[in-house]
Amino acid sequence: MAKNLVIVESPTKAKTIKRMLGRNYKVMASVGHIRDLPKSRLAIDIENNFEPEYINIRGKGPIIKELKKEAKNADKIFLATDPDREGEAISWHLGKILDIDPESNSRVAFNEITKDTIKREMKNPRKIDKDLVDAQQARRVLDRLTGYKISPLLWSKIKNGLSAGRVQSVALKIICDREQEISEFITEEYWTIEAILKKSRKSFEANYYGRIENGSKVKVDIKTEKEAIDILNRIDEDRFVISDLKKGKRQKKSYNPFTTSTLQQEASRKLNFSSRKTMMIAQKLYEGISIPKEGQVGLITYMRTDSTRISNEAKAQISSYIKDNFGKEYLGSSYVKKTDKKIQDAHECIRTTDVFRTPFQIKDSLSKDEYKLYNLIWKRTVASQMANAVYATINLEILNNNEIFKSSGSQIIFDGFLKVYDYTKDKDNILPDLEVNEQVKLKSIDKTQHFTQPPARYNEASLIKKLEELGIGRPSTYSPIISTLLSRYYVVVDEKRLTPTELGLTVNEVLYKNFKDLINEEFTANMEDSLDKVADGEMYWKDLIANFYEKLKKDLDVAEKNIQKVEIRDEETDIVCEKCGRNMVIKMGRYGKFLACPGFPDCRNTKPLVEKIDVACPKCDGDIVIKRTKKGRKFYGCSNYPKCDFVSWNEPIDRKCPVCGSILTKFNSRQGKQIKCSNDKCNYREKENDSEK
Question: Which among 7, 33, 34 is positioned nearest to 18, based on CA atoms?
Fold first, then answer.
């Protein structure tokens, strides 16, 4: 029988660690939390200094029984849950269940699941950090008080099934505030003038900047077409002269290694992964993947961190890899640790556990999505320790009858970290060899009308970035926040953007009007700082709860009197219910909109809602309709599905590609609204004009 018992959360993690520890250790999984607050009631004794009442989680009885049996026979018990506050709390709950002396050295934490790390940490167990546990308890109690005290108000005043969350509601407010900015945005017209100039056969672009007035350069913003025409009338096509030329160099710094936030943002941008998907895959890579000749091994460090620190051992290994594979000149030290906010610097960044385990070498052991994420993390890990990229730059000023045009060019002269991290879209823009006072020829010149655009709605990546900038939430909370907003149907994903629903806007308005002292960015960020103080032993966690509840109770008393009943009317359609004759209404469900009879519960008739876009299916005689995935993301498919399998993430338009004849689709890009061919093998693309908007 094994002399030592090691308890982790995950069966996969248990399997990986068991292989590394040997037969003197039995490794078991608690499968997450084993104790929690009951769902059926508040379970916070407000009169008894906010003491939480924990119970064993339903369904965990057999696991607890088996853990107790093995603990009774073990000489030593090691609690090896994840290396963060929640992991510390799980270990504390395990200690309570198994009667482990809280003063005993039973806690071990693995930042990475590798043989060397596990053996090192097993030799140096420590006490459970009660400050970290209290910080997690404080967060749990704060969230329970917020949800269980405010949510019933929403049920009675708006509709059943709604929820309010201390952090979730602030994230909703940020999304709704952006929606208000968009609705209040006033579009303004402006114009640009672009000249295509050339020397010999080499052409280059130059954009209008302004003019020289009284010997000084004045930038000119062109507001109307008349102003643009007046400028063009002052241009002499034979008098474009280089008036100033500056050559130089600039460096592009290599990126820091990943934190939870930056990994989720980059995986969203580069891989089109949701934050939830990113974290699920990262968890697998951390806990262990079976590799031929190695067995089960953890491929990345712990994936919930806001630190960008890399251990000295890892730095040495990465430097050795860079030197051997790219040359000494590619070594760099441009990585700079974050200092803008408090970070849990006991952790490392998210990096590969062994840089010599390249993505290509282990590709066959990974699923398609696992490979994509591991490849991203591996490249970022290596790139963070590489030299900066260096560009040769040239900036031109071109004069024509005192009208100023400007042009700039750049060329990579040393690729540095870009040799590995090839996700950037920098392209060389090489200008012809020119000299000051040299005259260049005009190939063409034209004016273009533009309109200012409102700020973009948040996508998952930009919302996570905003939350991090404001100090709202922590690495473990970003993904659950977004998942909750989507599951409650407070927001939907429309063209990859988070758009608030009418329900979300209504809930946000009610919460902000009545709980503005609690549901706001500044208060929530300050609360995160207070939780950090609890974790550092600088504040007693129940004092934090008491201060919060005092404000909550005050707002609750006022809100119960002030909040009026809000009726969210279902949108009526002209579709008649075939069972009772009433006009059906549009309802919102877990997977989006559907049609339902308003006569419920007497009539329970429902049917899918078909939203046509007035475009015929290119494969059959059906119509293209709007559909949604289970996660609420919009896509387009044929009304004759499953007989017809046409599907597109981008919105089809009623035009055919002039190159291959396939249907065209429109989409938003960083260059603005564009149209491209639905055929992946065809590269046809154009800008969207006003007639197609």
Answer: 7
Residue ranges per structural domain of the chain: 4-128, 150-184+456-562, 189-253+389-451, 260-383, 570-609
Angle at which helices 521-535 and 168-184 cross, to 10°: 150
**How far apart are the C-alpha atoms of 576 and 229, rounded to whole Å?**
57
Q: Is 653 helix (H, G, I), strand (E, B) or coil?
A: strand
Q: CA 168: distance to chain centroid?
A: 15
Q: Which pLDDT value is given to residue 342?
A: 46
**Angle at which helices 502-514 and 168-184 pack, to 10 degrees?**
110
Pair of tokens at residue 177: 């505030």
Q: Which CATH architecture has domain 4-128?
A: 3-Layer(aba) Sandwich (3.40)
Q: Please check whether residue 110 is in contact with residue 132, taking contact to mean a CB–CB distance below 8 angstroms.
A: no
By C-alpha distance, which of 17, 13, 19, 84 is closest to 285?
Answer: 13
CATH number of the domain located at residue range(s) 150-184+456-562 in this protein = 1.10.460.10
Q: What is the pLDDT of residue 23?
A: 87
| CA distances in angstroms from 226 to 213, 221, 404, 447, listed in the order given | 20, 13, 18, 11
Q: Give the pLDDT confidence score for residue 593 in this predicted structure.
A: 72
- Residue 652 in contact with residue 635, Cβ under 8 Å? no
Q: Which residue(s) pair with 206 in the sheet?
A: 195
Interior/surface letters 32-48, b for 16+ CB within 10 angstroms, e for the rest: ebbbbbeeeebbbeeee
* β-pairing verdict for 4-8 and 25-29: parallel
- Contacts of residue 679, Cβ cutoff 8 Å, sequence gap at least 6: 657, 660, 662
Amino acid symbol at 7: I
DSSP state of 365: G
Instruction: Specify the pLDDT at position 38.
Output: 95
CA distance 184 to 48: 49
pTM for the predicted model, two decimal places: 0.83
Distance, CA of 644 to chain centre: 34
DSSP codes of every residue in 43-90 = -EEGGGTTEE--EEPTT-HHHHHHHHHHHHH-SEEEE---SSHHHHHH
Q: Which residues contact 377 (CB under 8 A, 6 or more apart)?
A: 258, 263, 282, 285, 300, 350, 351, 352
Nearest Cα to Cα of residue 178 among 450, 463, 526, 468: 463
Provide the pLDDT for residue 2: 65
Can you give the pLDDT at residue 341?
46
* Residues in the chain where the model's pLDDT stays below 70: 1-2, 333-346, 588-592, 630-632, 669-672, 689-693
- 615, containing H or E segment: strand 611-616
Tokens of 186: 């006033």
Residues that are catalytic: 302
The answer to whether 405 and 195 are in contact (CB under 8 A) is yes
For residue 599, CA distances in Å to 503, 602, 606 come to: 21, 6, 11
Structure token pair of residue 382: 């290596």
Is there a contact between 298 and 286 (Cβ–Cβ < 8 Å)?
Answer: yes
What DSSP state is assigned to residue 158?
Answer: T
Q: Which homologous superfamily does the CATH classification assign to the domain defined by 260-383? A: Topoisomerase I, domain 4 (1.10.290.10)
Q: Which CATH superfamily is domain 189-253+389-451 in?
A: Topoisomerase I, domain 3 (2.70.20.10)
